[in-house]
Design brief:
By secondary structure, the protein is an alpha+beta fold. Helix content is 43%, strand content 14%. The chain has a single domain, classed as 2-Layer Sandwich (Alpha-Beta Plaits). A four-stranded antiparallel beta sheet has the order 2-3-1-4, with helices on both faces. The structure holds adenosine-3',5'-cyclic-monophosphate. The site of adenosine-3',5'-cyclic-monophosphate has 8 residues, from loops.
């Protein structure tokens, strides 16, 4: 589960970020634009509620719409987290989305689930079942070996 955050939408970086995920070979199985509410965001970021930046984080994330994505692929969580880079844009590795395109610790363009359990919980929070699509992605045959696809 990925959120392309308000700063990425405002800075017209949505296409660039999607381009990287598609280029990598990941499959988009859910995608929509949504103006996230403080109510939903307080649930999503509940584990940060005691941090001094919590209120600012909720304000930033609810300022304008975000793009919500569900991606599929082998070891997709590890792959996406590597592509995103560390939380602090200034320190994130070059070549990563945050490393190449951000310098902030808050306005870091993107959020991605860090574990399968978190992904399941977040997908349930942001997507209805009928908003997720199961389809045959033709180029998977050129992206994975038969064994990798099992
Ligand atoms: P994300 O991966 O969505 O997880 C929590 C978010 O809190 C993080 O990205 C940043 O947007 C924000 N964040 C993390 N650390 C800080 C900080 N020190 N100051 C402000 N915002 C932060």
């Amino acid at each position: 589960m990925v959120i392309i955050k308000p700063d990425a939408v405002n800075r017209a970086l949505v296409g660039e970020i999607l381009h990287r995920f598609e280029g990598k070979g990941l499959k988009i199985i859910g995608m929509k634009m949504e103006h996230l509410t403080p109510y939903t965001l307080k649930q999503h970021y509940a584990h940060h509620q005691n941090k001094e930046f919590f209120e600012e984080l909720i304000n930033y994330m609810s300022s304008i719409p975000s793009i919500l994505l569900v991606l599929e692929g082998k070891e997709v969580i590890i792959v996406v987290r590597k592509m995103i880079g560390g939380t602090l844009g200034r320190e994130a590795d070059p070549g990563t989305i945050r490393g190449d395109l951000s310098v902030s610790n808050q306005a870091n363009l993107i959020h991605a689930s860090s574990t399968p359990e978190e992904a399941r919980e977040e997908i349930k929070r942001f997507f209805k079942e009928e908003e997720l699509y199961n389809y045959n992605k033709m180029n998977f045959d050129w992206i994975y070996t038969k064994k990798e696809k099992e």
